[in-house]
Write a structure and sequence with these properties.
This is Protein NDR1. By secondary structure, the chain is α+β, with helices and mostly antiparallel strands. About 25% of the residues lie in helices and about 40% in strands.
Length: about 210
């Protein structure tokens, strides 16, 4: 066998291996338990908005979206339904999470669609508004934190349900003198799942 014939045969073998390898990746995507994705879209404290005459309105308006984790290249494949136990959402007046100022609970539910959105307002307790205003005046912002804690169960085609997996995440929120979030920290995204998928792709490509 000549060198050219050997190279041609190697190319054919690689192409033959590509299809089953991609199928394996798709199967893994549909069976590995990817963590859910939480995104904080709104965080607003009217009492810290200098344009309003509401210095005593110590409420927090929020908007949170819960999503199934998905990989764009594989979105045509159905992901499992996600059952959420009650989701405890806690608001803190600093990233250290030493002092909570508000909390609320999202009732348990099944996430069948790709995402669901929750929004509303909660009353704060123990929020030092004067101290927050001084910090905003001195630094241009004050950092709050929002934490979520829940457990999830995955339902695969109404055929197989997994055990419960605990899940806890948090995000820092910078509030300026408008009372609204000037900049979010890292949103609640299934980063580990994305890294896992990228690692599998790199391993697959490195085999050629």
């Amino acid at each position: 066998m000549t060198e050219e014939e050997f190279k041609e045969m190697r190319k054919r073998v690689q192409w033959l291996l590509t299809i089953p390898a991609l199928l394996i990746l798709c199967v893994i995507y549909n069976t590995v338990h990817y963590p859910p994705s939480f995104e904080l879209k709104k965080f607003y404290i009217p009492a810290l908005d200098k344009s309003l005459n509401s210095s005593k309105d110590a409420t927090i308006a929020f908007d949170i979206t819960l999503k199934k984790f998905s990989i764009p290249v594989l979105q045509s494949f159905n992901s499992p339904d996600v059952y959420y136990d009650p989701i405890n959402v806690t608001f803190y007046d600093s990233p250290s999470q030493d002092h909570s100022i508000a909390n609320f609970t999202v009732p348990e539910f099944d996430l069948i669609k790709d995402e669901i959105e929750y929004w509303g307002m909660v009353n704060t307790t123990g929020l030092d508004l004067d101290g927050a205003k001084r910090e905003i005046s001195a630094n241009g912002f004050k950092v709050f934190r929002v934490g979520l804690e829940t457990s999830v169960t995955y339902n695969y085609y109404n055929f197989w349900k997994t055990k419960r997996y605990g899940y806890r995440e948090g995000v820092d929120v910078k509030i300026g003198d408008t009372g609204a979030a000037a900049k979010f920290g890292n949103n609640f995204v299934g980063i580990r799942a994305l890294l896992m998928f990228n690692f599998m792709v790199l391993v697959f490509l490195s085999s050629y």
